[in-house]
């Protein structure tokens, strides 16, 4: 049962607007974890559970968690409004925390995502997000009416085709994105095409058992100059995670260092992930797990 709900209007760094539905369910008592609240933050996160010592604390922690996550998106360039064409709102308006959304507060969130390894169910949740988006990404490419439109969507379509096990299409779209890229160096999507195109080719190489080629593609994907999206939301760690699972930490650490050149907002994430890799473990990579 939903205890609290709020619908905001969110505008991404590239100017796309959409509703953001925030919900906190009524707290439920459990035998071993005190009281839990289910929290949903729309497109920002899949549904998560926040715990407290009692029902009151569970609600307080849930509201503060929502505010922190909205604050993290603010730092990434998102803008939020009470309603479409309404007044601007800020993360600090969502919780009684006068220091929100300062960077040192949000770093707690990044660390919390790596406290324990993801369960298979959590990994499946993030994969399902990618699968759910895939048909729409392919449709955008199909409906493209100009070369510029094709370039805007083809790298995402390559990743979408990979998720849907359409591997021939994934290779075709990735190759085409990289072939088109030199003619679009001044385009906002140039860095995305380089990053996604090489990521998909690396995933395909790894699927065929060619680890060396996959590593080469990983490092080529890290040579991207960045983009409005990569600079804000950061790069995919899909290929990096797959290579780590092949017991190859060195190229992944090199890749993370490449990402520092354009993902200035991601220093906290990159520091945490690097420490985990150096300790001999594989990070969760949270929302960056899939291309």
Written description of the protein model:
The chain has 291 residues and is α+β, with helices and mostly antiparallel strands. The chain folds into 2 domains: 2-106, no CATH class; 120-288, Serine Threonine Protein Phosphatase 5, Tetratricopeptide repeat, CATH 1.25.40. The chain contains 11 helices and 7 strands. The protein has helices at residues 55-75, 103-112, 120-142, 147-163, 167-180, 190-207, 211-221, 228-233, 238-244, 249-259, 267-278, and strands spanning 2-11, 17-25, 28-29, 35-41, 45-52, 79-81, 88-89. Strands 1, 2, 3, 4, 5, 6 and 7 form a 7-stranded antiparallel beta sheet that branches. Strand 1 (2-11) and strand 2 (17-25) form a beta hairpin. Helix 4 packs antiparallel against helix 5 and helix 6 (190-207) packs parallel to helix 9 (238-244). The longest helix is centred in the middle third of the chain and has 23 residues, at 120-142. It is globular, with a radius of gyration of 20 Å. It starts with a strand and ends in a 13-residue tail after the last helix.
List keywords for this structure.
alpha+beta, 7 strands, 11 helices, 2 domains, Serine Threonine Protein Phosphatase 5, Tetratricopeptide repeat, seven-stranded antiparallel beta sheet, 291 residues, globular
In summary, what is this structure?
The protein is α+β, with helices and mostly antiparallel strands and 291 residues long. It is 52% helix and 14% strand. It has helices spanning 55-75, 103-112, 120-142, 147-163, 167-180, 190-207, 211-221, 228-233, 238-244, 249-259, 267-278; strands at 2-11, 17-25, 28-29, 35-41, 45-52, 79-81, 88-89.
